[in-house]
Design brief:
The longest helix has 13 residues. The chain contains three helices and five strands. It has one domain: 2-Layer Sandwich (Transcription Regulator spoIIAA), CATH 3.30.750.24. It is α/β, with parallel strands linked by helices and 103 residues long. The chain starts with a strand and ends with a strand. It is globular and about 30 Å long.
């Protein structure tokens, strides 16, 4: 299943919304959007994963890429991740550098 990626600004938050599967074939689209988000200068980058049904290791690499690309004082918040996706993020230890939220 392809990945749909959208970007919007809501106040002081850049929101990236993902729908589909985040894997090696779709991660480059996400990376391009992260690059754009990093340049907006907002206080938070929210990655809405409500529509992500599957995330491969390339998705984890994408979250590491996001943490590296945005300024260190910018919070990265992952929202709406399904339990399997959230568990993968926690198992990899990425919940120490990004915020996982059920919102």
């Amino acid at each position: 299943m392809p990945l749909s990626v959208s970007l919007s600004i809501e106040g002081d938050t850049t929101v990236i919304e993902l729908k589909g599967e985040l894997d090696a074939g779709t991660a480059p689209d996400f990376h391009q959007t992260i690059e754009k988000a990093a340049g907006h200068g907002t206080a938070t980058v929210e990655i809405n994963m409500t529509g992500v049904g599957y995330m491969a290791s390339a998705g984890l690499r994408s979250l590491v890429f996001a943490r590296q690309k945005v300024a260190s004082n910018v919070a990265i918040k992952v929202t709406g991740a399904s339990e399997p996706v959230a568990r993968t993020i926690r198992t990899a230890g990425l919940d120490r550098s990004i915020v996982l939220s059920d919102e």
